[in-house]
Design goal:
With 298 residues, the chain is an alpha+beta fold. It contains 14 helices and twelve strands.
C-alpha cells in the first residue's frame, strides 16, 4: 500500500510501526523524500495538509479552522480537506483573488487564534460539529477526546450557547462523541448508524459472558449486536485471521449477531452500510423488501 493511502486510512497521522504493517520501508523513505508525507516527530508521520493551512493562514492573517485546524492539532480525520480551511474576523475584507484556493469563513476570531494561526481546540471541535458533515465532525470530536485535548462538558456547554442556526447539529455531534472510538474508521461507521432507528452502537464495549471475553469495535448490548470495522491491511496474517474467526464464532454461538464492514463499504458505499443496519434492525419478519444495495450474487 502507498504510504499516503496508509496514512489517509489512519486519519492523516500514524507511527512508523503501524505504517510498516501496510507499506514498506523503501516506499516510506521515497514518500518522505518527495514531500508526500512529513515527519512531525520521532517515529510519527503525517500528511502535509496541516502545513499548507498554516502557510495560508499566515498569508491572510487568518486562523486555520475546521478540519485544517484539527489536522494541525494532531487529530485523526475521516478525510483530509481538499484545500486549507480558514476563518477571519467578520469585519475583514478579503478580495476574491487573495482567497483563491482556500475555504474561507467569517466569524469572531480571538487575537490569540490569529497569532497562533489556528483556532482554539474546543472552538475547532465546535466549528466542525456545526459546519461539517456528521461523519467528518464526529471523527474529529472523537479524536480530540481520545487525545484528551478537550473537555466533553465544555463542548456541550459551547454547543448549547450557539445561536439557533447550527446548535442542533453541533449538539448531536458532541453528545455522541466518545474518547473510546479507536480511529476515524469506527467513528464514521458509528455516524452512519446514528441514522438507523432502533440501534444504539457504543464503541469498545467489553463483552464478558460464558467463557468469552472481548472488546469488539461497536456494540449494541440491548440488541446483542456487534458491528466490526474491518481493516484487513492492518490485521492480516494467519494467526490474526484464525483469532478473528474464533471470536466471531464465539459471539455467534452465544447469541450475538456480528455484522462486518470494510473500509470500502464505510467510505465509498455508506448507503449499503445504512441499508444493512436498517434491514437488520427491522428484522426479516417485518416483511420489508431487500433494497438493491443488499442484493448479492457470488
Amino acid at each position: 500500500m502507498h504510504p499516503v493511502t496508509a496514512l489517509t486510512r489512519l486519519g492523516g497521522v500514524g507511527d512508523r510501526a503501524l505504517l510498516l504493517r501496510a507499506t514498506t520501508r523503501r516506499r516510506l523513505r521515497t514518500s518522505l523524500g518527495r514531500g508526500e508525507i512529513v515527519r512531525v516527530s520521532r517515529g510519527t508521520y503525517a500528511l502535509p495538509t496541516a502545513h499548507d493551512a498554516l502557510v495560508a493562514a499566515g498569508r491572510l492573517s487568518a486562523a486555520a479552522s475546521h478540519a485544517s485546524a484539527a489536522s494541525i492539532h494532531g487529530w485523526e480525520l475521516a478525510q483530509q480537506p481538499d484545500r486549507p480551511q480558514l476563518v477571519v474576523p467578520r469585519n475583514r475584507e478579503v478580495p476574491p483573488h487573495r482567497r483563491s484556493g482556500v475555504d474561507l469563513r467569517w466569524r469572531p476570531v480571538t487575537p490569540d487564534e490569529i497569532r497562533a494561526k489556528v483556532t482554539d481546540m474546543h472552538q475547532t471541535v465546535i466549528d466542525c460539529a456545526k459546519d461539517l458533515p456528521l461523519a467528518d465532525a464526529l471523527a474529529i470530536a472523537d479524536s480530540a477526546l481520545r487525545h484528551r485535548d478537550v473537555d466533553h462538558d465544555r463542548l456541550v456547554a459551547m454547543a448549547l450557547a450557539l445561536p439557533t442556526n447550527g446548535r442542533t447539529r453541533a449538539l448531536r455531534v458532541v453528545e455522541h462523541a466518545s474518547p473510546l472510538a479507536a480511529n476515524p474508521f469506527e467513528s464514521v461507521l458509528r455516524a452512519i448508524s446514528l441514522d438507523v432507528p432502533g440501534i444504539n452502537l457504543q464503541p469498545q464495549v467489553i463483552i464478558n459472558e460464558r467463557g468469552f471475553y472481548g472488546r469488539p469495535d461497536l456494540v449494541d448490548s440491548r440488541r446483542r449486536l456487534v458491528v466490526e470495522a474491518e481493516s484487513w491491511r492492518f490485521h492480516s496474517g494467519k494467526t490474526a485471521f484464525a483469532r478473528d474467526c474464533e471470536r466471531y464464532t464465539g459471539l455467534a454461538i452465544r447469541g450475538w449477531t456480528v455484522l462486518r464492514f470494510t473500509w470500502r463499504n464505510v467510505f465509498h458505499r455508506p448507503d449499503y452500510v445504512r441499508d444493512a443496519l436498517t434491514y437488520w434492525a427491522q428484522g426479516p419478519d417485518a416483511g420489508a423488501t431487500l433494497p438493491p444495495t443488499l442484493l448479492y450474487s457470488a
